[in-house]
Amino acid sequence: MQTRRAPRLVAGALVLALPLLGSCGFDKATDQEYTQAAGINDRAGDVDVLSAVIVAAQPDSGTFIASLNNNLPTDDFELTGVAGSGDWSDLTVDPSDLSIAIPGRGFVNLVNEDPITVSGDFEAGQVAELTLTFDSGDSVTMDVPIVFACNAYEGLDTSQQEPEESESPTTEPSPGDVPTDTSASPSESESPSDAASGAPAEPYECIAAGES
């Protein structure tokens, strides 16, 4: 009896194990490439676009950052443009023309390049559609998250950095000039609404944005 019972126990154990064995295999979720980050990835072309985000320190403007990985060993590429597309085609990207080299098997982090700023009607938490173009003629369209400039992204948004003030030449009257009243008339003075329209947006507070 014992010699017959042992094979039955082994067979029963194999039947119970079949569902577990069947869950293993190829092309499962655990086999897929995954980069843990807030950014979006696109690996469909010769150049991988990795961890793409728009970092925003305030509403309505931000800085586009991503990493570019050239999969080909001998072909060099250039990122030639970033622009809004679809419902986001009214975004303004500066500079509009780019020339960022990505050598064969090369890796470029846009954080280390001249900043690519984005402005428009948006705020952190939204997702903007952007199209990246390359000198090869290829293009990549991605739904790029707009993230707060907090935690790992703190300091990466340069879109609202004020340019250095240049010294403007002062005009002094010559000895023969007749002094005149230089006070501005009410029509020429800056109205409060004009001043407000040119004021930068209030920056986000990282604590309110979810920073612990």
Topology of helices and strands:
Elements: H1 2-23, E1 40-42, E2 47-58, E3 61-70, E4 77-84, E5 92-94, E6 100-102, E7 107-109, E8 116-119, E9 127-134, E10 139-148, H2 192-197
Parallel strand pairs: 2-10
Antiparallel strand pairs: 1-2, 2-3, 3-7, 3-8, 4-6, 4-9, 5-8, 9-10
Describe this structure in words.
This protein has 212 residues and is an alpha+beta fold. The chain has a domain at 33-153: PCu(A)C copper chaperone (Immunoglobulin-like), CATH 2.60.40.1890. Helices cover 13% and strands 30% of the residues. The longest helix is centred in the first third of the chain and has 22 residues, at 2-23.
Helix proportion: 10-25%
Kindly report the CATH topology of the domain at 33-153: Immunoglobulin-like
Count of discrete alpha- or pi-helical segments spanning 4 or more residues: 2
Low-confidence parts lasting 5 or more residues at pLDDT below 50?
Answer: 32-36, 184-197
Tell me the β content. 25-35%
Report mean pLDDT, rounded to a whole number: 79
What is the annotated CATH architecture of the domain at 33-153?
Sandwich
Radius of gyration computed on alpha carbons: 29 Å
By secondary-structure content and strand pairing, the structural class works out as: alpha+beta
What is the succession of H and E elements?
Answer: HEEEEEEEEEEH
* Termini gap: 66 Å
Indicate the CATH class of the domain at 33-153.
Answer: Mainly Beta
How many strand elements? 10
